[in-house]
Write a structure and sequence with these properties.
The complex is a heterodimer. In chain A, about 75% of the residues lie in helices and about 5% in strands. By secondary structure, chain A is mainly alpha-helical. In chain A, a hairpin with a 2-residue loop joins strand 2 and strand 3. Classes of the chains: A mainly alpha, B alpha/beta.
């Protein structure tokens, strides 16, 4: 128990310490990005890592969350702490019919179907102008004045966003941790390893997958809601593009598929590597980014966290 | 002891502030240096470099050299916000420019507004950038809804040009929809019936079904909007191949004005109009001299992007010259913002003066160039060359209208 409690406590301590001790706003910005990508990586990992269902369309769920949150705020005046969970909820609701349709397909067919779903969501966002503002998109110019513990929240500063991203990341990692030890988690691993066998022993595989997708969508949607408030501008290209779906896959894979800590490690490495090489090489930085990915996949197919777990003596599998 | 410490600190303070004044003035410019828009980032880099070298060779700004820090945003909104943040907080640039894509520029504008750093938009055309009341954001180039102003002027003032009906075909991006919407609004205001209103996704490979549909409506003029060059070329090719014979084809968007348009379409490009927010006034010796200079340095002829980037640096240099810089970052940025508000000059791009006014679609602009509406021109392809034809003051040649009917 202490083995798992200790790193968790350490992590929370670090999360609290960062905004209190560091005044460098760009560093905080990078930390916020890392936390946001952790949420998104974890969202993808729940479905892709545990259930083995490779989705190339998670941007669709992210987009539903982002649009829901920003529309509720701009049109309904709903504050972020309500808007973000509602964005997650909307994404989860949208994911159910998607899941019922796509989970009839397996393997590469499922992956292709998710790709199509993302494209459909993007087209809807582009063309349903009365709701989504089409290609013009939505821009938040000011956030409402809020007092918390007697202090005015400074929306121009980083700490409130850091706190929000940290809470979301902790929720995402706790959800993954809970899933790993739950009955559903066991079902998912069974499905991942052999779906026919899982069905044969009486697991309702479609139901298990749909529930997992909804969970994954909830996290991705909250990530989208956070994006809307932090970056303040939502348009179809930015939130429903294929690039975003791919980043989520990369983070989960580089960090370690089907592990709890993987998405955090993946987000730290990929964000840091991207920032460092972009700083050094203006034109060629993507080459180094790609090279880093290739090296990880070639030499650590189980991901960075997966490899670390394996090398740590006495570590249990998973984790 | 305390006295000593304070005097040492004061000395350091003086040293720091004087050295800050002797250092180059930093301008931040997020541009797409990699990814799908990389060719545009390169255009701006060349233009910025040339302007910077000229200004620095002439003694810089009040004795200080200009330094332009370009950061790659890969045409991603999220990254544009990140690099803008980095340039402002880490590199401590005094002022920002660049952006290239509208989505990225909106993020940069939003960051600049929050961090109280002036931002001069040099290319992105989305109306939203200067219609949200951002007092730290300035724009030299016209907004999307201003692009069709020359066309509007043409149909109103050229004898017999008022169309009986029109077909409007536009891409479903922000650019396409803004301009398509503005064109339709202009036509409706003049009681021209819009018989076809067609949106298409960017990089469509086959416009023949669309053009068949358009042909059935027998439009008097055909208006095409494309953000991508390939779309501009294919729209025109397929429209002509499907046998559309309107009195005029008018294209909106950069793709209708590039050399590829003529080289790929050959005779099909003849007499097609390109209505742009800027095509330069080649009758102006200063524009000519700039073209020659740019070509001599880079062996390419400058277009809209290069002219915009080059002009942006000159506008900033002018404002920096007038601003009283003290070495205090916040005060200096505010001084530059104030100086930009008082800008009244002419660049290669044209006259510039920032003001608050209402756009053609009713947008309330803040710090948008007040001369923008007059900068819209119509050009026409003649024997592989794009020549300005309207308004008359900018005309290089007589225009051909209506399009001669071929047998």
């Amino acid at each position: 128990m202490t083995r798992r409690l200790l790193p968790a406590l350490l992590g929370v301590a670090v999360l609290v310490a960062i905004p209190l001790s560091i005044r460098n706003s760009f560093f905080l910005h990078v930390c916020i990005l890392i936390l946001m990508w952790t949420v998104l990586g974890a969202a993808w990992n729940v479905l892709g890592g545990f259930a083995g269902q490779v989705s190339f369309g998670h941007a669709a769920l992210f987009a539903v969350g982002a649009y829901t949150t920003i529309i509720l705020y701009l049109k309904g005046g709903l504050a972020p702490w309500w808007g973000i969970p509602l964005g997650g909820l909307a994404a989860a609701l949208v994911s159910v019919p998607i899941g019922l349709l796509c989970f009839r397909l397996r393997g590469p067919y499922f992956a292709l179907a998710t790709l199509a779903v993302a494209e459909i969501v993007k087209l809807v966002a582009l063309n349903w102008e009365s709701v989504t503002a089409g290609s013009v998109g939505y821009l938040i110019t000011t956030l409402p004045p809020v007092r918390l513990f007697g202090l005015e929240v400074n929306w121009e500063g980083k700490p409130p966003f850091f706190a929000a991203a940290a809470v979301l990341a902790v929720v995402a990692l706790l959800t993954t941790g809970w899933l790993r030890n739950s009955r559903l988690g066991a079902y998912l691993v069974a499905i991942r390893e052999n779906e026919d066998a899982a069905e044969a022993v009486g697991i309702d595989t479609v139901r298990a997958k749909v529930v997992t997708l909804a969970l994954s969508a909830f996290l991705a949607g909250m990530g989208g809601g956070f994006y809307a408030f932090y970056f303040r501008y939502v348009d179809p290209d930015a939130v429903a593009g294929i690039g975003l779906s791919m980043e989520m896959v990369f983070i989960a894979v580089v960090g370690g598929l089907g592990t709890v800590g993987g998405p955090l490690i993946g987000a730290v490495f990929l964000t840091a590597v991207a920032e460092l090489v972009r700083d050094r090489f203006q034109m060629g930085h993507l080459i180094f980014y790609g090279l880093f990915m290739m090296l990880v996949i070639r030499f650590m197919p189980e991901g960075i966290w997966g490899r670390v777990r394996r090398l740590t003596p006495g570590a249990r599998t998973g984790g | 002891m305390r006295k000593l410490v304070s005097s040492v600190l004061a000395t350091i303070g003086v040293l720091v502030s004087t050295s800050a004044l002797a250092q180059p003035i930093k301008i931040g410019a997020p541009q797409p240096m990699t990814g799908p828009d990389a060719p545009f980032g390169d255009k701006f880099k060349k233009a910025y470099t040339m302007a910077r070298e000229e200004i620095n060779a002439a003694g810089g700004v009040n004795g200080r050299k200009l330094e332009i820090l370009i950061e790659d945003h890969q045409a991603k909104n999220q990254l544009a916000a990140t690099v803008a943040e980095k340039l402002i907080t880490e590199e401590k640039v005094l002022v920002m420019t660049g952006g290239r894509g509208s989505g990225q520029a909106i993020e940069i504008a939003s960051v600049c507004q929050r961090l109280k750093t002036p931002y001069l938009v040099d290319h992105p055309s989305a109306d939203m950038i200067t219609s949200k009341g951002f007092e730290w954001v300035f724009r030299n180039n016209p907004t999307g809804s201003i692009y069709p102003m020359a066309f509007s002027d043409f149909i109103t003032n050229y004898p017999g040009a008022m169309p009986k009906s029109a077909a409007v075909v536009y891409d479903n991006t922000l650019f396409g929809k803004t301009i398509g919407g503005a064109v339709i609004k202009i036509l409706k205001a003049k009681n021209v019936s819009v018989v076809a209103d067609e949106a298409y996704p960017v990089n469509t490979l086959d416009f023949k079904p669309t053009m068949t549909k358009v042909k059935a409506t027998n439009p008097d003029v055909v208006l095409l909007v494309a953000v991508a060059t390939t779309d501009a070329i294919l729209l025109t090719r397929h429209a002509k191949e499907m046998g559309l014979t309107p009195r005029a084809f008018v294209g909106f968007g950069g793709g209708f004005g590039v050399a590829d348009f003529a080289s790929q379409l050959g005779p099909l490009a003849e007499n097609v109009f390109s209505s742009a927010a800027w095509s330069g006034n080649p009758n102006d010796p200063k524009t000519k001299a700039f073209y020659e200079k740019f070509h001599a340095k880079y062996a390419i002829w400058p277009h809209e992007h290069e002219v915009e980037g080059y002009s942006a640096i000159y506008i900033l240099a002018d404002a920096l010259k007038r601003a009283k810089l003290t070495g205090d970052l916040d005060a200096d940025r505010e001084a530059i913002r104030k100086a930009l508000l008082a800008t009244d000059m002419t660049t290669v791009f044209g006259k510039v003066k920032f003001g608050n006014w209402t756009g053609p679609l009713g947008d309330a602009y803040t710090n948008q160039n007040v001369y923008s509406p007059g900068q819209s021109v119509m050009a026409q392809w003649k024997g592989g060359q794009l020549l300005n034809v309207w308004p008359k003051a900018f005309a290089e040649t007589a225009l051909v209208f209506p399009e001669p009917v071929k047998k």
